[in-house]
Amino acid sequence: MIKSILIFGILLVFIVHGESRENIHDKPDTSTSIHPAMNFLHFWISDGELQALDILKQEFIKKGGKWHHVVTKDYQLMKMEASIRSSKGFPVSAMLLLGGMDIKNITKLNYIQPINKIIDYKAEDLLHPVALNASMYNKQMMGIPLSIHNENWAWHNLHIYEQLNLSLPKTWDEFFLQAPLIVQKGYAPIAVGQDAFSVRILFSVLLAGIGGKDTYNQFFLSSSREGLDSIKFQKTLSAFSKIREYAFTRKLNIWSDATKEVINNRAAMQIMGDWAKADFLAEGKIIGKDFQCKPAPSANKYFLAAVDVISFSYVKSNAERLGQKLFIDILLDNKIQTKFNIVKGATPAIRTFDIHKLDSCIQSRLPQLENSQNIIYSPRLLISEKKLFHLQKAIVDFWRDTNMSTTDLTRNLKEVLQNSVSN
Question: The whole model's pTM is what?
């Protein structure tokens, strides 16, 4: 309920103050300041994410800019912060958005400006199609894609698997065979954050792997309830339910808490997007020695794509306008974007990166990104925030309540889909 109120508040403030942003755009400050300024709003909070952000910050400062950034603990709070600042007449210079539907919705609310209003060169040709599509609305580029993320990763603690003489599980059936042995030795077979984001990613990856691309797309894109009774979908729910028996969840508030359980030799595996790798690297862990990155069990052929996009508000000062231009130049710089994504754990959104500079995790998944048959899109790119919120709530309620059956979950998901049609 609280989250729904927050989302409604964001939309209301955007709508009420849409005209004021046009006024900001039309009436520039006459200040003679020549120092580019940046006030960047984001929700990167883990050690690895902040290390990656520092690369952008240092480049901006090195080029004569004055940097300031505001961080919130999650995406919804970040958008609320942006709307409040906009309503009071001091919007941020730039903000981090999840590409796709959010770009569309926020553009409609007239909060962010097209990139061609800021720079005098064409950026579209520099970008991978997956990244470019996530930043477009109405044939206009509404932000600069920075990273193509893959949500389909399993992060394994190699010390635990080697100690127990176990191979890394390639299917969920293998995982369930190994899980009792891992528990017997005092480790958690899998660590899962209790936030809705972590649980939803686990469910999405399960659905892609067990259900397949068609079942996945039907569930998220269609409002049809018939597919929920299919053998593949019900098999996914059964696996999701069984994972609850082996998941370590205590005091794991968010995804990065679960990552720490794997890093610190308390859990064998985590299912999480490629950004988790940044936290392993930030702790000095080495790929192939301390941890390993593999596609999630049963989902080895899919790249589950999500895109980080940095969008730019209408601002009134010349310093901020110069700062926006400088920041865009930095974001589109081949070497800088590659360096950022090496630390962040993602694939660069720009086309012209040096593949040999990327680590083995990213290199191993690039062929999938170049084959449309292997690409599945994150629901963050596909569906409205309202529909995602209600689907996610049904999934999380089931995850947290072990008394609920898969029959209960199926019924609740059908209700969400039915309501999405009537609304």
Answer: 0.88
